[in-house]
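[Amino acid chain]
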Amino acid sequence: MTRFSSLYLLAALGVLSPAAAAAAEAVDTSAWACATCPFEKEGVSGAVEAGLAVVSDRSARFGDYTGLRREGNYLQLEGDVRWRGPQGWWLDASGSTALRQLDLRGGRDGLVGLRLGYAEIPRYLADDAASPFLGIGANTLTLPAGFPAASTGAMPLAASLQPVDLSSTRKRLDLAAVVPLEPGWTTRLSLRHDVRDGLRIGSGSFFSTASQLPLPIDQVTDQLELAATYRADRWHATLGYQVSQFRNALDGLRWANPFISAVPGASVGQLALAPDNTLHQVSGQAAYVHSALWRVSADFAVGRLTQDDNFLPLTQNPLLASTLAALPRTSLQGRVDTYNANVRLTLVPMDALRIHAVYSHSERDNQTPVMTFTTVTTDLAAGGTVSTTPYSYVQDRGKLTADFRGPGTLRLSGGIEAVATNRTWQEASDTLDTTVWAQARLEPLTGLNLSLRAAHAERTNDGYGIATWISPAENPLLRKFNLADRRRDSWRAAADYTLSEAVQLGVHGEFSNDDYQRSPIGLAQSRSEALGADVSLALNDELSVSAFVQSERIRSLQRGSAAYATADWSATTRDLVDTGGVQGRYVKGKLTLAAEIASSRSRSRVAIDSAGPTSEFPSAGNRRETLKLSATYQLQPHITLLGSFWHERYASTDWHLDGIAAATVPNLLTLGTGSPGYSLQVLRAAVRYRF
């Protein structure tokens, strides 16, 4: 996926004053000649490529990151064209049908720069989804004749299931302009318009019965950024304003209950979808370079987020609605104020020593009024009374690092970091995270580079309390992993050896251990280990080969209590990830051949240890194997022939999904999507013309 930034445009255009541009116009450069100058000549240049890709099979998973979802032929066009005109005028254009993007940039050096960009970003979630619901894509789902039923087995699914395309597309339009004004001043304006539509997977329930639902997507996001920058000899500063508006054409989804309800009136359910919201933010940054000995920079951002959509009705059950008190407000009246600031200082007190210091302050002040209301249990019955919890925090972070160039090839670095956080509506109101680390690098032999990094971190809190605002109350022995006291130790060692210009070797190892010694219930320990190696060989001037392998092991221990007391069971999760690959390249005259083989495999297992019989969840995992072959032949100085073959096989297992069709579980109506898997080939041939 290609992302665009107006900052990239600013860097591409450069900043020239109008006076300098006028001086450039007064000089006749038509007779100048320079064979080695990097400046492009006036005229048109670039390259265009046209090709045909053939995909052997259909796969949403494969298409999700390639765009090649369906079986069949794809005409692929792409190009990069540049025009350089007189008096500094220029235009760049690039585009690709495979990436679904077009980018136009142009202007006049030192006077104005413009950009227009368009991109489509598809998402494909599943191939085999099916649902009996009618009206998919709208805000109301109904059911055909034969519904509701007592169970999925009694539903007329054989006749009513219809394919559902679980996919979405984000269409993005970018506009940007950079205009230098007075000497030293530059203004930047950028606009972005995103439209996202399609379907995604959701779910809804009526207490003991549940249904997977195709949730509609119909959203628009508009962003505007306006900034002004001033540059002087030793310093520069930028002040900007940003606004972002999110709009959802659908406030909620209402769906017919496919199950016969034991409670009268519970025939329609309702889910709220993402509400409209707005962000306004003012930001600034500045930097000052006094000399090679020290420099300082700072930035800040002050923002306000608001959300004020009207609430949906408390229930769709008319019999229940008449017994409920009205909500205290018609909307959330949500407002969150944010503030972030950073100051950075770099000192070079001596040639061998460099010191970096950073201080950061951030605040999230949630001004949303607290609201108390009666809950509704899936349109069946009234629940208890709850209150909203407008979460806020204040965080201060300080970091000090130093790099020291020792004798010979010895390089030492180290640092300390402290993060103090104060939170509201949390069991621990104050936490302090401190980290100390050190690293050494050395070249004991010519071509041999060794490095070792070790770190120790601790988090402490001011006491872990009980969340009185949660009902029913949580176990007082429970500790949330992001608030609990924690001790973390980690290290990384690496060695890289260049035997010669033709042979390079590398190995590395990593270890990390998190210990939650003061968590009677909750995450108790997490440990990860990784080993890897790589080799690169240049067998001769024409042939080179490289390979790599890596293995990672992650283990975590969780304690729980079924009796709402001390721990009486534990769960151990083990994740294993292995990857490896080999690639080679052969160049002979006008012909270039390349090959790549890669494999990755992951497995996950969860074992339960309790007072009863020990049990283990079914394992889950996936495996991907890839083979890529490509050839390039320089037919003529301006014409190149390209060909490639891509074979990929992917298999996955997930006991949450596998073997669960629409009617497999009596009280669960699913979309029938299993674990993704495919085995397919992509054959491509193309011609590139450079001019």
Notes: Confidence is low (pLDDT under 50) at residues 1-27. Residues 461 and 544 are 55 Å apart (CA to CA). The longest helix spans residues 6-13. Helices lie at 6-13, 18-25, 60-66, 157-160, 318-321.
